[in-house]
Amino acid sequence: MYNRILLPTDGSEQSRQAVESGIIFARNMGAAVVGLHVLPRPHKDLLDAWMHHDPGYATQRLALFDRMADEALSFVSNAALGLEVPCICRKVESDEPHAAIVAVSDEERCNLIYLASHGWKGQQLYLGTVTLRVLRDSRVPVLVYKPHFR
Hints:
Elements: E1 4-8, H1 13-29, E2 32-39, H2 46-52, H3 57-82, E3 87-93, H4 97-107, E4 112-116, H5 129-137, E5 142-145
Helix pairs in contact: 1-3, 4-5
Family: Belongs to the universal stress protein A family.
Pfam families: Usp
Domain UspA: 1-146
């Protein structure tokens, strides 16, 4: 049914749970996975530059985001390797994570997007904005994983 599953991750605990579940799902389907982390697009942040008076601050911040992406994608690739699920990982830059998720799904010919919903507690929203936008814009099915908290 599904042969290529996109696993977007931001490295959070909720995303890690979705990745673990998604890889088990992929193994049961005989599918490959595509790990994805969306980095914020680099831009001049005048407020940060003004507040820190350090021209290297933006570079350090981008390096931190890149390291966080590498850690998140390493989790995906290691989890897939442990269950012998074929996996590739991608990092992309975008100011709109939902659009990047949908675009990579198309580019990689994924036929399912498996993503975590961060949601809020209490009387607030139960699905995050990115999740809702992916659901709205995706041309393939989207499985929304609601994580349990450990």
